[in-house]
Amino acid sequence: MARETRYFGAPRKGPEGVRFPASVIGGVVVATALAVTVWSIKQQSLEVAQATAETQAQEIVGPPCPRILRGAFSEPLRPVRVFDFDGVDFGRSFGEADCSAIAKKSLLGNGYQLVCQFSSPAVLAVKSDKGLFYFEPGIGREATVFVLDGSARCVMASPYFARWKQAVTETDAQGKPTFAADDQNKPKRR
Questions:
Q1: Which of the residues 20, 65, 89, 162 has the least number of beta carbons within 10 Å of its own beta carbon?
Q2: What is the Cα–Cα distance from 69 to 58, expressed in whole angstroms?
Q3: For all residues of the chain together, what is the average pLDDT?
Q4: 121 touches 93 (CB < 8 A)
Q5: How far is the C-alpha of 161 from the C-alpha of 118, rounded, in Å?
Q6: What are phi and psi of 125, to 5 degrees?
Q7: 71: burial class by Cβ within 10 Å (0-12, 13-18, 19+)?
Q8: E strands of the chain, at which residues?
Q9: How many angstroms separate the CA atoms of 123 and 125, rounded?
Q10: Looking at residue 135, what is its pLDDT?
Q11: Confidence at residue 83, expressed as pLDDT on a 0 to 100 scale
Q12: Long-range contacts of 33-42 (CB under 8 A, 24+ apart)
């Protein structure tokens, strides 16, 4: 039987071309998924390590916040400023909040726990999949809440807001607070 000469663009006759077995295609899909998973875990580990360094968690040391029962958690200092951070609800009465994540030991090295620092919360409420947690640090007191595996604990310290308070109350050469300089130029009310 003679071979036909094929010309460019001529229709194919028969099963010609490259065929990949299903096992090769499956192997490529599995290898790609594994590479993406490893890359994602590595990225998460790097982000948690950076957040841990920025949060300076080793400085967050203080006595535990007073806990209160749900029945005592009512007017006038109930948490009216509520926000969600990574699936956990945080509520406070006053002040500001700054949240981050810090590293915790895990099998893959990418575990983390939540850390929220508060400037002057008065009362704190934390709602996670493990339940409701109530704390009463008081007005004008800094506090930090750690949430590990859904359980919250609170300490009476917040290096973030302590540094912030120091920055806004720095004084000039005469010992006067620098943030009050603008108030001196305003007309006084009588």
A1: 20
A2: 29
A3: 75
A4: yes
A5: 7
A6: -125, 135
A7: exposed
A8: 81-85, 88-92, 97-103, 112-118, 122-128, 131-138, 143-148, 151-155
A9: 7
A10: 92
A11: 93
A12: 41/108, 41/109, 41/110
The answer on pLDDT for 21 being more than 70 is yes
- Whether 92 has a pLDDT exceeding 80, the answer reads yes
Give the long-range contacts of residues 131-135, CB within 8 A, separation 24 or more.
132/70, 133/67, 134/67, 134/68, 134/69, 134/70, 134/73, 135/65, 135/66, 135/67, 135/68
Return the closest-CA partner of residue 73 out of 123, 144, 121: 123
Q: Which residues contact 99 (CB under 8 A, 6 or more apart)?
A: 85, 90, 114, 115, 116, 117
Handedness of CA 87, 103, 54, 80 (dihedral sign): positive
| DSSP bridge pairs for 93 | none
State the pLDDT confidence band at 104, using cuts at 50, 70 and 90. Answer: confident
Query: Is the peptide bond prior to 76 cis by the omega test (within 30 degrees of 0)?
Result: yes
Q: Which two tokens stand for residue 76?
A: 């006038």
Instruction: List, in sequence order, every residue forming a beta bridge with 154; answer none if it has no partner.
Output: 145
The band of 185, judged by pLDDT with boundaries at 50, 70 and 90, is: very low
Sequence ranges of the domains in the chain: 57-168
Amino acid 168 reads V
pLDDT at 190: 39
Tokens of 16: 């010609």
pLDDT score, position 14? 56
